[in-house]
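Objective 1.3, modelling of assemblies. Example input:
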Amino acid sequence: MEIPYTVENRPDTGIYNAKVGIWLFLASEVMLFGGLFSAYIMLRVGAPDGLWPHGWLDVRFGTVNTILLALSAITTLLAWAACKVRDFGKFKFFHACTILLALAFLGIKSYEYHDKWIHYEIQLKDGRIADGHLEEQTDKEVVLHGRIVAAADKKLLYDLRSQPDLKLGAVRIDRADIVKMQNYGPWHNTFTAIYFTLTGLHALHILGGTLVIFYLWGPGSKMWLTDPERFTNRIEVSGLFWHFVDLVWIFLFPVLYLT
Amino acid sequence: MSDSAEKAVDLKSYIRLCGVIFLVVLCTTSAMIATSYSTHLGADWTGRVAVILGIAVINAFLVAGYLMHLLSEKKLIYVVLGFTVFFFIGLMGLTLWANCDYPLTGAVPR
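Predicted structure (tokens):
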């Protein structure tokens, strides 16, 4: 049985069916991310004065990821354009670039997550707070690369932007002095919760998109031999999804890294 | 992309267009970072956030308008997006409204 309107446009909509489908899907995605962005606004506006983090994320990584995604959006478009001019070799090249750029994005994101995972805040019995990256831990002590602040100076841990010349060093802590030890995972505070939720969901979209693009680049590209026009439409639909993922990042980057 | 898909595609002109878009994205990203770190804007974070998000909207327009070909799409897609924008504004508006609907004094309503 032949599926109708996979290549030719429907007379009533003027578009082939898959394209209508992807746009409806993207509309639902806007509401999904919109809900999370509105949650971010609520958390941010509701945070006590001075207790919303500034400078916790490395802007350099965010910037590189922005450039990688922008480049991948461009290579996706060029892959589709190469299909339209029936240049399969160029399609393969541009889509391979897209896959590599997406993997680089995920690699950098993973590094950022790891950095948060080994970053600890330790509440000490004398009320002070040790903060830094875990270097070593034994049954008796924990060693961080960071600093210790008094409980009254806790706000210093939130606004790293205002401390560009921060001096960090090795901090040795006896386990007997520890009241609570917690890393900067999603459970740490509302910022890390919304940061991991937003970027995690976005990274899952990147991963899903990469798998689809890889399929179309590899085994799925056999369709080029039998039905090149339909294959080109598939590239267009996957490209629209990829551009949407780029659009989400365009707002995630300033919201999380710059404001 | 339907309209443009029906037109003849010139790969070289697409490469030129993509080059221009990439340069603009680089410039806007730099502008966002510069705004974020600028000392000339004082400590007013609200104004700073507005400027940064304004620049992000320019970026988004480039991606949606040119890379997704939204500037030359069919009416149905615009209708779908119109509904999306309506509900998105509703979502954000209700969020902000709910945030304003908060007791300013210490009194807790029964």
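Confidence is low (pLDDT under 50) at residues 1-5 of chain B.
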